[in-house]
Each structure stands twice: as C-alpha cells, then as structure tokens.
Amino acid sequence: MKSVPKPPAVSLKKSTTRAAGDVTRERMLDTAEECFATHGFHGTSMRDIASGASTPIALVSYHFKSKDNLFDRVIERRASYMATRRMNALQEARTAAGDKPIALQTLIESYVWPFVERSTRGGPGWKNYSQLVARLANSPAWTPVISKHYDDVARAYIAEFRRSMNGAADASIYHAFSFMVGTMVGTVAEPGRVDSLSQGSHTTSDLEVVFRLMIPFLEAGFNMIRKDARAKRDLA
Questions:
Q1: pTM value?
Q2: Is residue 104 a contact partner of residue 219, using CB atoms and an 8 Å limit?
Q3: Which of 7-16, 18-27, 73-82, 198-207 has the lowest mean pLDDT?
Q4: Is 65 exposed, middle or buried (0-12, 13-18, 19+ CB in 10 A)?
Q5: 19, HSE (Cβ side, Cα atoms, 13 Å)
Q6: Strands (E) located in the chain
Q7: Stretch 42-66: mean pLDDT, rounded?
Q8: Does pLDDT of 236 surpass 80?
C-alpha cells in the first residue's frame, strides 16, 4: 500500500510567538496613540509608551526603531482603514451616478461620515485617534504626515468635487474641501465650545446628531461656490 505523506510539521512555538508579538505591537500602538493624543508628539517619550504598554523600552525600540517611526505607524494604522471606507463609498457613489456628476451631498457624506462613525462607534482607540488627527490638522509641522497618509484619497474626492461643481475655480474647490475637513476634525474632537456657549443647553457629544447638522451647512458652502461660478459664466 502506498504510504500517505505526512503533513509538514507546524511549529506551534513560532506561531504562538508571532501571535504574541502582534498583540504586543497593537498594545504599544494603542498606548502611543493615547499618549500622542493627550500630550502631543513632543510631550510623549518612548519611555512613557513603554510604561503605559507595560513593556520594556527596549522592546518598543525593537518593534518601531524610533519615536518618529512609531508616530507614523500610529497615523497610518487607522488612515489605511479610513482610506478603504472612503474609496468604497466613492465607488458606490460613482456607480449610482453613472455618467452624471455625483451629488454634492453624497460626496460630503461619503468623506465625512466614516470619520464621524468611527469616532462615535469605534471605541476609545478611535476617539484617541480623532483627538490626535485634530491636533495634527491644526499644525503646519505635521502637514507632511497628514499628506502622506490622506492626500491620495483626498485628491480622488477633489476630482469628483471638480466635476460636480461645474467649472468652479480650482482654488475655490481646494479651499472648500479644506473647510470641510477642518469642520469635520474640529467637530469630532469635541472641544466643548458649543457646550460652553450655550451654557450646557446644547452639546456636541452626540456626534451623529451634529453630523446631520453639519452636512447641509457644508453643502450650502459648496453650492454657493458652484452658483458663483455659474453666475460668472453667464455674465461673460
């Protein structure tokens, strides 16, 4: 009788070690994310991250080499998820629109909602990340980091805004997109300004309610730019 070949041996030790390493790296990233969100890049040390993650500082250095590299990895981890969500939403919008331009409301919702949804429903990690991105968005020093991880998707959306806004000046479209992003990150960071101004009678803590208020506000801004472009063409 022909012998049946044995399956290759699987090293449980290596598999277990790799899984444990993945868990440790994720714990370090979670801790770094929280520290950077709370204290900023310069206010956080590798030692702080090691202490918060209950790991030796040498292990943090082993996995991430430097604080700059660790910071970049923190931003990239959730940015890649956000890119997938946004591009999927954009593709769905393109398919639904067919040959026609995508409605401005749809474009705005497709870009803004994934960030609001994760900040609302994604747990403490996403809330920390929202706070961190809000910090970065308001600091010219971190523009290269934001650009590295967010610009490709942003440009895909801007191309669709350009098509939907029917001849509006490029400068106006770029600024409008920037206003949209600023409104989004500023709101999701929940700075408490509305709570303070209204003396507690209104709050920003229910982001899904705020989102529904935000969309018509943003859409009106984009629409005004589109109308101005149309009026200038009519006068030409």
A1: 0.86
A2: yes
A3: 7-16
A4: exposed
A5: 6
A6: none
A7: 96
A8: no
Q: Is residue 70 part of a domain?
A: no
Same domain, 113 and 216: yes
As given in the structure block, the two tokens for residue 43 are 């206010």
Q: Which domain holds residue 42?
A: 9-65
Whether 3 is in a domain gets the answer no
Instruction: Give the DSSP per-residue string, 157-169.
Output: HHHHHHHHTTT--
Query: Which residue in 60, 77, 73, 67 sits closest to 44, CA to CA?
Result: 67
Unique residue bearing structure tokens 């350009």: 162
For residue 4, is it within any domain? Answer: no
HSE of 113 in the Cβ direction (CA atoms, 13 Å)? 14
Whether residues 142 and 61 share a domain: the answer is no
Beta carbons within 8 Å of 16's beta carbon, 6+ residues apart:
none
Question: Domains in the chain: how many in total?
Answer: 2
Is 131 a domain residue? yes
Asked whether residue 87 falls in the same domain as residue 161, the answer is yes
CA distance 130 to 121: 12
Q: How many residues does the chain have?
A: 236
Residue type, 134: A
pLDDT value of position 1:
47
Q: How many CB atoms lie within 10 A of CB 10?
A: 8
